[in-house]
Structure formats: structure tokens, C-alpha cells
Specification:
The structure is a homodimer.
Chain A lengths: L3 H16 L7 H4 L3 E3 L11 E8 L3 E8 L4 E6 L11 E14 L23 E5 L4 E4 L5 E17 L7 E2 L12
Antiparallel strand pairs in A: 1-2, 2-3, 3-8, 4-8, 4-9, 5-6, 5-7, 5-8
């Protein structure tokens, strides 16, 4: 549960993080930055600051602000009925982000899952993204990611975003951050 | 027709234009920047520098570099068979861009079409975009746009990009810039 005060504080901090890339964010957009704690109430450990530029029936673009070592928890975007699941490309703009996918396990990964939730992380093929690096994920691909020691700014280009259909490995996660 | 030397020069200039937003472009990407002159051979008047981040069957993201007063000529993205035409969102990152659409004619527009091609511009509803402003276009919407006096950087988020199906008002325009 994120209080209104926390929401405002984290939105300002997200703006600061975005500022490291010199991205222009309008005052109206600052108030729309989503502070997603995935229902766990430990935003700086498990969470994302999300600025949605556009999300139509067909395509979506977002800017993600990540606090130092913050994790977006393991999940996938399923096909729903006839509709293919979300396809997404992550492009690192600033800082560093470590993406974990199904595939050959990286022997000495550079990240640890958030403390106490280790058993909800199962894929360990690491892809390291620095500024200008990007990676495209097909639907139904299990993945999670964590920012480096300084945090990160990541652009996400994708098909329609329907967070409510995402499937998380951690059953305690409810996608929508509840606001008091 | 753009020569190899011109291509290299314009790619370097595009990198400079992108640099005004502090966007990180990798060395490999610089060589992939498309210098699109729409076949007219007057790139600085009618053209675009295009860095394609991703273009799959389902979605696409690009960065556009625009030289001062450079114009992307009037066109639309048609539905093809069962498939809806391209939907696109333009977000201005730096400089200024003037978008022209079907709709109420703007009495004192801030742009003039490229000299000698005035009769290939027919829509005059002006939308002015500064840094942080954006506009979403549905398929089959006739449009053109021109950068302001300093040029512009514009992010384009869209569905699949299939330039070959674009319909231009100017019949002389061949979309693919031919490289000697």
C-alpha cells in the first residue's frame, strides 16, 4: 500500500531519475507517473516508476525509472484467446539493467533477487544492458530485471499493454499498486 | 540519389542532431541511420534521418532527426487487406515540429511546403509540438510535418512500419532513398 505522500515523493524521485537522460517530461505527466509496487509494499526493492507515453489497442511506449537495485519481478505476458501476448523491447537509456530470461543459466549472475522472495525467481540467463543496448522479448517469455547500483532509465516499446493479464511467479503479487 | 559521401555526412549530422537530446546511439547504429530523401534528391528540404530501434510484425519504434525546416512530405498509411494501416505517435524530444492533418484549416500556418512542390500539400490543420508534446495518428490519416528553425528530434512509436505501402500525395516520391 503506497500512501499519497509516498506517491508524490516517488513521482518526484522518478522525475529526477528520468532527468539523468535529459528526457523532457511535462508537469501533467509527472502526476501520471505510475509508482508500481506490485502489491508487495516494498517499492524500492520490488517496483518500477512508469511513465506511459501511449497505450492503444495496438501499441504502447513507456519510460521506466528504476531505483538502485530495484527489481521488476519475474513474469510473462500470456497469449489471451486469439490474441498474442505482449511483445516488448527494452532499451537502456541510462545506468545499467540486468535482464534475466529462460536459457542457459549464467554461472555468476550480477544480481540477487529481493531478500525473502528468492524462491519466486526461476530464470537465470543474464543479459546486461547499458546505455544504447536493447533486447526484444517475444510473448510468453518468463523474465525479470534489476537495475544496477545507480538505478536505470529504460524505454519500453511494445504491443498493447494489459498488465492485468500478466502472470507472475510470485503469487503474492497483485499488479496494481493500491493507493490509500 | 544520395552518394555514399553524402550518406556518411548526413549520418554524422543526424548523430549531432540526436546528440541535442543526449540520446545514446551506438557506433553500429550510426551506420544504420537511414537518410531518406523520398527519391526527390533534396534531402535537406524533403527528408528525414531515421534510426529504427525495432520493427517487428507487430510494433515499431524509431527516432527521427530533422534538419532545420526539413519536411516529411504528405502521406498516409493505408489499411492493406485485412490488416489495419500503421498507427503512429509522434513525441517531440527537442526543437519544434509542426504537424499538418486533415481538419479545420489553420489560417496562418507556421510552415510553407518545400518550394516548387506546393501543389502536393493539401491538409492544413496545424498541430505544434514542442519538447514533451505528442500526437497519435490513426491509420489512413493524411499528414505531413516540418521541423522548426532549429530542426527537431522526434520519437515515433507505432505499429509495424511498412514504408513500401505508404501513399504519398506527391507522385514523384519514391520512398526508398536510392544509394549510389
Amino acid at each position: 500500500m503506497i500512501s499519497k505522500d509516498e506517491l508524490n515523493r516517488y513521482q518526484r524521485e522518478a522525475l529526477e531519475i528520468f532527468g539523468r537522460t535529459h528526457i523532457v517530461v511535462t508537469p501533467a505527466e509527472v502526476e501520471q507517473i505510475e509508482i508500481a509496487d506490485f502489491g508487495l509494499g516494498q517499492f524500492e526493492q520490488t517496483g518500477l516508476g512508469v511513465l506511459v507515453y501511449v497505450n492503444t489497442q495496438r501499441c504502447c511506449a513507456k519510460e521506466l525509472a528504476m531505483w538502485p537495485r530495484q527489481t521488476c519481478p519475474e513474469h510473462l505476458h500470456p497469449n489471451v484467446g486469439d490474441e498474442l501476448g505482449k511483445e516488448e523491447t527494452f532499451r537502456c537509456r541510462w545506468g545499467k539493467v540486468f535482464l534475466y530470461l529462460l536459457g542457459e543459466t549464467t554461472k555468476t549472475p550480477q544480481c540477487k533477487p529481493p531478500a525473502g522472495r528468492e524462491n519466486t525467481y526461476s530464470v537465470w540467463h543474464e543479459v546486461e544492458l547499458g546505455p544504447g543496448d536493447q533486447y526484444t522479448l517475444k510473448p510468453e517469455t518468463l523474465h525479470w530485471f534489476q537495475a544496477g547500483d545507480e538505478g536505470a532509465v529504460v524505454s519500453e516499446f511494445s504491443t498493447r499493454s494489459r498488465d492485468e493479464s500478466d502472470i507472475f511467479t510470485d503469487e503474492e503479487i497483485a499488479r496494481a499498486a493500491r493507493i490509500e
